[in-house]
Amino acid sequence: MALFAGCGDDGGGSSGTAVIPDTDTSTGATGTTAEPTSGTTGVSTDAPTSTTSDDTTDTTSGGPIEPPAYDQWLTIPLPGAVCGNNSQYKIFVNFHEGAKDLIVMLEPGGACWDFDTCSGKADLGAAHPDGIPDDLLYDPLTKNLSPLMRRDVEGLTKDWNMVFIPYCTGDVHTGNNVITYKDPEGVEPDLEFHHNGHNNVIAATEWMANQFPGTDRLFVTGCSAGGAGSLINYHFFRSRIDAQRGYLMDDSGPIFPSTGWSGPLHEKIRSSWDIDSVLTELPPGYEVEDDFGVLNTHIADLYPEDRLSTVFFQRDYNYSRYSYERFYPDMTKEKIHEYWAEDTDLMTALYDPYPNMAYYLPYWRGLNDSHCVSIISYLDTEIEEQGIDLGDFIADLLDDDKPLTSYRESVQPDEDN
């Protein structure tokens, strides 16, 4: 099942709203398929090739690389980092000359935790089962995924340095486990799968820490699996990258309290992905024991001056299916939405007491089953009764002089019917 749709919209928007133009003028991605040597990162500004670029730097003992190009996507293989099929993992970086701000976006793409989901046999599966292509950022859908990562769209992050964290491990960028899944029907061969998301994030973070010292603003975001990954990994980004200020927007990947309907999902991924080994890396006193939902308040306590947020549609019919469909019998669309609404109530109760946390919860959008608020454009993300859309919310999130405000649209009975 597709996790986001490549649909664009035209037309005007309110202040702070990004509108995608008819013609995409952004620069195509560049890359390399060179195998990195130990401690060395390959960078190329040519179309993908099998040769090693001359622009390489030892990121273990050396300083930042001199960008071989600005305002272009560059492919950075990370030594020791792998995808679910054990192929080479890589990130994509877009430098802007003189920029002191950094946006990190984690890619969406479902999740998997058993033979059917990780082998691609199930309706609900995970992205890039065959690894990450060097030309991923040539793909129109990926290149145009979010206004926040585009230089040809006017927006608050247009002139920031940008890092795109691809997703190929089926574990919302969080796992730490090599596991063998057996075909329950005993027909297909065993599937060895590397849930290596956490280690990939750490490798990417170490590269960014070396490359972007003295960052002013660090903005971590992503939608769906990337949204959940942005929240779960926020501490690891924030504690390692030298940034004066931190911001988070988890788009459509909420980590609900385990005391609600998401509890069975949390227990399943805890074992399949070995989540406990990751959670033990949190600072003393911030261990997540039996309730994943406290990750939200833990990072709020750890970083009281940072500005943290979660956004999603209340009628999301994608992440909500992952949350409940394989864990409860006879799931109908309305029953899924009922569970989602009750879990949302639990989450907002966590957020409301914290001045450094906010949520933005519009009701419904026709695009992509109301999944991922920040993709393609911010059209139809408005909460009309409060005169705001997602673009406005992001502008307020990044404005340190404004208090964070939460928004939850009332039920719109004429929508999603």
UniProtKB/TrEMBL annotation:
Q: Which organism is it from?
A: Nannocystis pusilla
The region called Disordered is annotated at: 1-70
List the protein's name: Pectinacetylesterase family protein
Listed Low complexity bias regions = 21-61
InterPro entries noted in UniProt: AB_hydrolase_fold, PAE/NOTUM
The highest taxon in the source lineage is Bacteria
Question: What PANTHER family would the database entry show?
Answer: NOTUM-RELATED (PTHR21562), PECTIN ACETYLESTERASE 4 (PTHR21562:SF83)
Q: Which Pfam families match?
A: PAE (PF03283)
